[in-house]
Structures are given as structure tokens and as C-alpha cells.
Amino acid sequence: MRNRLPSFKNARTFLKQVWTLARPYWWSEERWIARGLLGAVVGLNLGLVYINVLFNRWNNDFYNALQDQKAADFWRLIQYFSVLAAAYITIAVFRIYLQQMLEIRWRRWLSKIYYGDWLANRVYYRMELKDYGTDNPEQRIQDDVRDFTSTTLSLTVGLLREVVTLFSFLTILWTLSGPLTFPVTGRTVTIPGYMVWVAFLYALIGSWVVHKIGHPLIRVNFDQQRYEADFRYRMVRIRENAESVALYGGERDESRGLDGSFGNVWRNWWKYMKFYKRLIGYQSGYGQIAIIFPFLVAAPRYFSGAMRLGGLFQISSAFGQVQGALSWFIDVYGQFAGWNASVDRLLTFGQAIERVKEEIAGGDGIAVERNGRPALKLSRVTLALPTGRTLIDDLTGEIAAGDRVLLSGPSGAGKTTLFRTLAGIWPFGKGTVRIPADARILFLPQKPYLPIGVLRDVVCYPDAATAHTAAEVEEALSACRLGHLAPRLDESTNWSLALSPGEQQRLAFARVLLYKPTWLFLDEATSAVDEDTERHLYALLRQRLPGLTMISIAHRPGVAAYHEKRLRIDPETRQAAWEPITMPAAAGS
């Protein structure tokens, strides 16, 4: 995997990358709602800063009232505190609520962009065929988009709040701390607003140390997300192929694979624990010292009588606000490390999508075009594997509307690759495939895709369930010898596990009857049914769809009876030859 983790020496480049990801949303069709929500969030954060300023003044008055034992002032200030606290709570609640609203809207918009680009032009398929330097796209679209939007808002708004806090309390701290005078080599040196400089120095040293301690977390976070995604993907694969794993008795092998995958999670997590322990230890110590530090620095002026008790607490509060604002980077360093990794993963994913789109736009590979003729034409088509090995060389020919063509040849000859080429999804090779512009095409792979959901939706796929009446769906199932499924049309489950391979293939034929294609491509689409059912299904196609153009891949000799032409592929010569099928027509054809 490519690693482009930005260091702090090229922070400018990293911020440009963040802006590249963030900018489109703020100039999108949602920009006014987004900007309005952001403005409200920023306004509420500024409101919290103002209330903190009022709390700081309250500290001075309250502790002076205690020192002077003024009961009336004490109770008045308690009431004032209640008002400030109520306002603070209200603003804090709505600040988080509106920030979360903005976060989910941004995440929705960005997720749609990513999965839209991923699905467009079958980019997702090409990315599985060839290594583009990315892995686990589902994690990038789900986890990384969520983390990016959430953390970007949190860090941006947090930084703005701390900058405003810093400038709001600097004046207070400068005024309250007063000058510090001390002798140096016979001279008197005076430092005005000395606690401001102490706060700057304290935060500067703390930030430098936390960077040195926490920098390894950036790489560790990056690796942890990748290993977690790999572990999750292995379990998804087992679930998707549960029946095959069970039939092979492959549990032990799958367990070894999961052990190895989780081993990466385990080892990297221990690295994370080690570095995070150091970071948390330092942050905790830094925070605890910050509580007592302003009292230590202000103590000389207090004990000299230059400052009252209220002033001591007020200066402690102001110092804490200034020091906290200056130490913002220290507090968010762990969050920043995870954000850094998410930004990198989204950038590399987006770049991989763009590379695929450029390849498609550049016309590399096999061109699939729509034309006005009622025939499918192959012009000097050469099929290759991603490794570059040629399967079929310089194939030319034509399939007219109404033809029934059987693709034959030994396993590995390239039949399924040609099937994918006709579908327009195989990019490796050269030549041109021209398909009738008005063709209504349907492809039936050996293992049909069955979405998880209501059976009615599964049967009607790729149409919407509303495109067909309940009677039409039930009749199609019955015609394909699946009448026993009619009572379950409103049942929702994982049908790829609930149905046998033979039932799944028959369901795919029911889809054909509903969809009524004019061109049908079948790749071993009856391999899981018995020969009697196979004859029934092919006869059903000829009976229900008399003008159908059909291109089939099948190994059983009986299937040839439902075709008039054969395209035989010879893997030795890498040539394909057209020949007629002269065997007697099948019964019921």
C-alpha cells in the first residue's frame, strides 16, 4: 500500500490535501445550508467563550466576597452563577446538536460522491481485477468518510474556539498578572504581563514534547485501520460463502486465516498501546501541572499583598484558558493522528478511482459501442488477462438478431472472459464490440446475484418490484419450477444461503421471463440443475421469447440442441472459429 503520510515539515501540503477533500461540499448544492449550520456552530462556540469570560470575572467577585465575608454579595453571585450555568448548558447542547447535524449532512454528501464514482462505469469491478494501490473500499467509504467529516469539523471549530479564547483572555491575563521585577547582575529587570509569557513558554515546550512522543501514532493509526479492515473483510467473505466453506469443511483453514489477520491487529495494537500510553501519560501530567502552575507563578504577588484572593482565582482561571488555548495541539494530538490516516486513505482511494476513470476515458482496452444495426459485431477483438497473457487473438464475426450461439472450448480457453467482454466489463485486450443500440440485454452468470431482502424484489431484479404484478411474479416462478416459493414472496432473508444453487439458477430464469430481454447471455447458467430441468428451461425461453438472441456457455452436449451456431475456442492456437450446429433440434423447441 502506498504511504503518503505528511510530516509536519510539509504541513502546508497536507492542509492542501485536506482542502481538496473538504472544499467541494462547501461549494455544492448544499452550500447554503452547510454554511448556515457552520455559522451557527461557530456563533455558539463564540457564545461559550463569552460566557467563560463572564465566569472569569465572576471568580474575582465571588472569592473576594468570600474573603470579605459579604453574605449578600455571596448569594447574589450564586444566583448570577446559576444564570450563567443555564446559558452555558443550553448553548453547549445546541452547539453539539447542530455540529452533529452538519456532520451527518456532510458525510451523506461525501459518501454519495465516493460510492457514486466507485459504481459508475463499473469502476468497482476494474479495481478488483487490477491493483491500483487501494484496499477495502467499503471501509474507506464508511469509516474514513465518517472520521474525516467528524474530525475535520471538530478540529476546525475547536481551533477557531481556542484562538478566540486566547485573544479574549490574553488581555485579562496581561492586566491581572502585572509586571515581574527581579535583579540581574546589579540591574533591575521588569517583565510586563509576565504570566502571558510563562503561558506561551509552557505551551510551546509542551507542544514540542508531545509531538516527539506522539508522532509514531500517525503511522500506527494508519496500519491499525488497514488491519482492522482486512480482518473484517475476511469474515465478510466467510459469511458470503458460508455454504461453500461448510461443504468443504474449511473451518480450520478459515480459522488459520483469521488468526493470521487478527495477528496483525494484535501486534499493531500493542504498538498503539505503547505509544498511546506515553502520550496519555504526558498529557495527564501536563494537565495536572497546569492546574497548580498558575498558583505557583502568581503566589509571590498574592503573598506580597499586591493581589487579593479573588484576583488569584481570576488569574488562575485566565491562565488556564490561555494555556488551554495554546495547548490545544497537545490535547488533540491523538485525534489528529487518526485524522491524518483517514485523509491519506481517502486521497489514495480517490486517486485510484481517477486512474480507472482516466483509463476508461482514454479508450484503453476493448471498446464496446452501441450501433444502429440489429447485429452484434466483433472487430479484431483480442482478449488478454491482467498479466498480459493472450487468450483469444484477433476474433472477428457477427451475431445477427435471433441467432442462438454456443460458446465452446476447454476450461480456461477464455469463454467466460469473452462473456465478460460482451458485457462490456472486461478491459484487458483490444478491438471493438458493437451492440445494437435498441438491444434489451440481460446476462446470467453461473452464480446469480441475489440481493439480501424481500424475495419479490430479488425475483424482479434488476427491475423494481413495482414493475411486475404479483400474478406475473408467481407465474414466472411456477414456470421455472419454483412454485413452492410463491407463498414466501414477502419474506426477507439472505436468499443466496436460503436457496440451493439449482433454485438460484431457476430463479435467474424467472427473472428472464419477467425482464423479457431481446439479447440473453448465459454463462453455465444451468450447471446446477438436472438435465431434464435444463431442457425445460431452454425450451421455455424459445417458447416465451421466440425472437430472443441467445449466446450461451455450457459444457453439457444437450445444450447445443437449442443453438444454431457454435463459436469454438482453441486455447493452443488462441483462435476462435465459427461453425454451424447440425445436430437434431431438441424436443419441445
Would you give an account of this structure?
The protein is α/β, with parallel strands linked by helices and 589 residues long. The chain has two domains: 8-361, ABC transporter type 1, transmembrane domain (ABC transporter transmembrane region fold, Up-down Bundle); 367-580, Rossmann fold (3-Layer(aba) Sandwich), CATH 3.40.50. Helix content is 62%, strand content 13%. It is built from 18 helices and 14 strands. It has a six-stranded mixed sheet, sandwiched between helices. A hairpin with a 2-residue loop joins strand 1 (180-184) and strand 2 (187-191). The radius of gyration is 35 Å and the shape is elongated. Mean pLDDT is 82; it is low at 1-9 and 585-589.
